[in-house]
């Protein structure tokens, strides 16, 4: 079991529970996570959803060594698009549109695919040691599948982070509005819980309407269409890699993770 789930005082807490792998996302973890989100969404006794993680790091991103991916001599672009569309793009958009407020509590590293877990949440509380990065340009790809970079960071900061691969600190993320609050590591759970309790005391229908209003405003500005179109751009990186013997993206991913350890 990669996901823990509990409900208390109208708050559903979803916990990533693969700390020995820095909560790397294999297929089973993502499927369990989606099921937990849907359970919380459908539970009338839940007003707020909290996403947190066990261990030192929130998430080290996609785990391409979990057995779900075919070998480099068997993989096709059609397979990649189908797999990434379902588990990366569709899951993230579904979580974003759950009609209940959600809060991500982020500590340690949140790398590449980790952004697909916290960015769909309405609020982010980060510990002082948290950092956010998307260094997949070194793999020949222009960014992860759910391309919230421009919306979360602003255009120039998004380009800087993608071009350099460097992490964004918690304080920096708060300054650009990607993070709502930065707290000491030891206070992350208590501060997140206090925020969730305050939100849970509000009328559920009012919360739903407020979230809908903000999300629809972003969608009118082009958020949804941009996420969909940039996903297609993302796939050109895989297409290019497939034209090179040995599918080097998988090799480069391991090199990338080694640099970030």
TrEMBL record:
The record ties this protein, via CDD domains, to:
crotonase-like (cd06558)
- Kindly give the InterPro entries that the UniProt entry links to this protein: ClpP/crotonase-like_dom_sf, Enoyl-CoA_hydra/iso
| Pfam families the UniProt entry points to | ECH_1
Q: Where are the transmembrane segments?
A: none
Q: Say which family it is in.
A: Belongs to the enoyl-CoA hydratase/isomerase family.
Name of this chain's protein? Enoyl-CoA hydratase
In its UniProt entry, the species of origin is given as Rhodococcus gannanensis
Write the lineage as a comma-separated list. Bacteria, Bacillati, Actinomycetota, Actinomycetes, Mycobacteriales
